[in-house]
Amino acid sequence: MSLYETNVSALSLVNPFYASSLAQAAAELPYEVFMDQENLESLNLVHTKTFQPLYSSKPQDVIHEQIQTYARFQEYPYLYFFGLGNGILLKHLLTNAKHQRIVVIEPDPCIVYVVLHLVDFSMELKSGRLVLLSSNQLNFPTIATLFSAFQTQRYAKVYDLHIMSSFYENYAELIQQSNRLFIESLHHTIQAVGNDAHDALIGMEQHFMNLPLMLSTPPLLDFFKKAMITKVAVLASTGPSLAKQLPLLKKIAPYVTIFAVDASFPVLTRYGIKPDVVVSMERIPLTGRFFKDTPKEAFEGVIFALSSLQHPEVVDNIKAGTMMMCMRPFGYMMATGAPQWGYAGIGMSAANKAYELIYHSHFKTCVLLGQDLAYGDDGMSHSSGHLFGANEVKQKESDSFVERYGGGGMVRTTTVWNWFRQFFEKDIAETKHRMETINATEGGARIAGAIELPFEEVVASRVEQTRPKIPISLKPMPEKELVKVKKTVAASLQRMEQYLHKQRVRIEALFLEVAKVCEVFEKGENVSLETLRHLEKEIHTFRKVTQEEFFQQIIWHVAQSMLLVQEMALAVIEVKVPQNEEEAYEKMCIWLQANRAWLFTLAGCIDAIQTAMKRKGEHYPRGHKEGKV
Hints:
There is one protein chain. It is built from 23 helices and 16 strands. The longest helix has 44 residues. It starts with a helix and ends in a 14-residue tail after the last helix. By secondary structure, it is α/β, with parallel strands linked by helices. The strands form four sheets. Strands 11-10-9-8-7-12-15-16 form an eight-stranded parallel β-sheet, sandwiched between helices. Strands 5-4-3-6 form a four-stranded parallel β-sheet. A hairpin with a 6-residue loop joins strand 13 and strand 14. The mean pLDDT is 91. The protein has three domains: 191 residues, no CATH class; 140 residues, no CATH class; 134 residues, no CATH class.
């Protein structure tokens, strides 16, 4: 196998789309290749039509200068480049094991074709240390995946998109678009982590409070087996466009499975439409209003898919029907046990969760209605009939603009709606192999990846109106099986409590040790290098514990939202390259001070988690449905 074939084989494993484009590049190669004998550093390409070279001066001179320049990035785990160049700088950078991943956008597959004939990137491509992307792959789902891990998010403040050579200035507009997309994706994934630890703790406490009730409801896995009572699922949200679709939805209601978000439940009820499933997942009590003000008869025969972290105001206002409570894919919920009741709700909205339920229930088609995720042309934020008014959300100067449904213009949206839209785009990209997603909203923002069709056309082409659907029938787990589950859950909770206590004692002891040393050099006194290195080793040892699965599950879900800002500050310190011993000593001192604050916050986080587990919502009014595990 030739070097080129080895490289393409490796690229095919990780990016078959880009690998397949290289065959056409070979047939249309618009470059002359120049190289001094076998000196790869001298490799240069000149475009046969524009006569522009990849390097305007001797490539080896440019690369030697770049190697010196990029020495200051030697501690960066992640680097981002626009342009592959002749590949030699990247090959040099990848000899540094500290560079865990280098992402390269190369808009011209012809350059890749030439470079892969001469430079061996097979191991780097296979391992994922070199990620090669074409301009056609610059979309939110692809780029967001690069920042899905917390370890990548903590380096957000040191992100930069480096331009490989002056040749790529021809792509100025694409460079700007790429940079915006990377920044937008970083921002989205960081927001998805959560920036409100208080909110996370409320959800955690309500989860432990709701556990007994959850186990008395039908398991989620049973729902997945029985929910597909028709081939088509309609997901009804409360965007301004919902109202115009209600007459046709009412007509076909007997022949499709209707999933409604909590806010659209009263809207559909007023119009005489009974959904099959109503989905909710908010922690706040205000969500309970959607159920409190809806008549009891509207609940009968409906499945209410709730999350275990929901407020008692929601739970207590479910007047009839079948309550199904499941867990979200959070670590502490997974550690709780009872996987038969998990996991759905990785997205940020009830509609995102409903989409997950539809997909995992194996529906053939999901039709989105009222999924505007933007203001209507009249400025309204919600459908007429919305419980809190059609203009509940007021337009602000901070609002942004996104592409309109159907194209041909832009519509105004909010930051939150934009997050919801991005979650849909990511989910659609991941589910399209098995389920088609049709956006029949006929208004609002375009959701990339969804097929845009008028609702009438969807009904005509996808909905079989021959036999009415049979209602979804769910039952709780048999008591004999449930006894075993409850024992497992009780043992899991005990293990969690013991682990929290152990880690809190360890963190507090380490904090006191670090704080004592920090106080010394804050007084202007020197601390021996031996002492500093000892503490550095202790902190690194403990940080390895934070990467363990159980720590991640029961502590990090809350801690990450409290510590992300501190983690990003630590990352900035860690990547600095000292030029002398004095700078190295100063870096160590600053890093220890930052870790002192980090340890203090983490200890406080564990204390809050322990309180949430112990209290279990006992401060709420006693109307809540209770039970014991």
